[in-house]
Amino acid sequence: MTTLTYFPPIFYDLLTVVVFFLILHFIIKVLAAANAKKKEEEKLLYKKSHIIKLHMVSETEWVTQGQGVHTAFIELMELLADESQIITHVNEKGEGTIFHSHTYGPYYFWKGFKYKGRRILTAHVIPDSSRGTLPYWKQLLPLTTRYLKLVYSFADIIIAISPSVEDEIKKLGIKSQIVRIYNPVLNENWARTPTNRDKGRQHLGIKNNELLILGVGQLQERKGVEDFIDMAIAMPEYKFVWVGGRPWGKFTEGINRIDERIKNAPCNVSFAGLMDLKDMPPMYAAADLFLFPSYQENCPLAPLEAAASGLPVIFRDIPEYGALYSTPYLKAATTPEFINIARKLLTDPEFYEGSVELSKKLTREFDKHKIKKQLIDLYRNTTDKYFQN
What we know:
Blueprint: H1 9-49, E1 52-57, H2 68-80, E2 86-90, E3 98-101, H3 106-112, E4 119-123, H4 137-154, E5 157-160, H5 163-171, E6 177-180, H6 194-204, E7 212-216, H7 225-234, E8 239-243, H8 255-263, E9 269-273, H9 280-286, E10 289-292, H10 302-308, E11 313-316, H11 319-324, E12 330-332, H12 335-347, H13 349-364, H14 368-388
Parallel strand pairs: 1-2, 1-3, 3-4, 4-5, 5-6, 7-8, 7-10, 8-9, 10-11, 11-12
Helix pairs in contact: 6-9, 7-12, 10-13, 12-13
């Protein structure tokens, strides 16, 4: 008679766990082998063709398009479009050897997860960028700072778009590699033409004999839109137009307050709302002067676009610009200073022409060819390092 061996229930539980982990170990080994084979195939193809496969990500494709991060993303894509040594896949449209993101939402973490060691992030914002941007920004600042530290740490390489951004990230104790590459200016996109001037003035309802002062930015405290209205009140002899809206919708600081200021603004100032990037060259061409009263910026594109369009630009006098720009620029610390400089520009032809020359020199600091080379060198070095490991 055969006797069956009895095993306690815990034995079968342990056996199940062991089998589960053996299967899991086998799956991991299979996936690792498949990834290693794929990497080796990509390495051989890269050594043969020297083509960089870039996965570019920006959540601004779907939301918040009316702001500088989306402009920077679009113009970088345009800058790389004619580069034969780079194949770019955007967002969900494929994958690459290296990863470059302009935004830092859930999609950044999801898409970047499999690119460990080759994740590049352009840091367009720092914690202080929330100042005067979001409701309750002061109360939210500790949470914003903690989240951005997580964002920066997830990246292997951070592109700092200005000296102030680089300094701020270092102060946060981030261990990721930091390289400084500015946003490029595509001068040809902003060329001032009579056709664009006529088109812009017609759209804005500005007569040929009227002088137009332009402002561009989101309708929020940080951008200085309320100061812009104060300048219009003090200068009734000129036309003022502000282009920009609220890409963040209700998540924008001071909606009721600013809407009330707009409602009660004088008749010489108007608000054109959000515009597509392709519609902006006529807006700059329509203007005679550009004011940029923003209180906090990193590497702003709007004043450089205006400068590329041949406009004198008056910046707010903040420390960030002193570190960012190596050439002289017009600056004002207060609203009365903005008004005084603006009046002098529009009544003194010699001063005006000299200020246009300042704008030309300023845009040269952001030469697209130099910045394109810096980016390609970064992509190349990152790809080489990945295939060496």
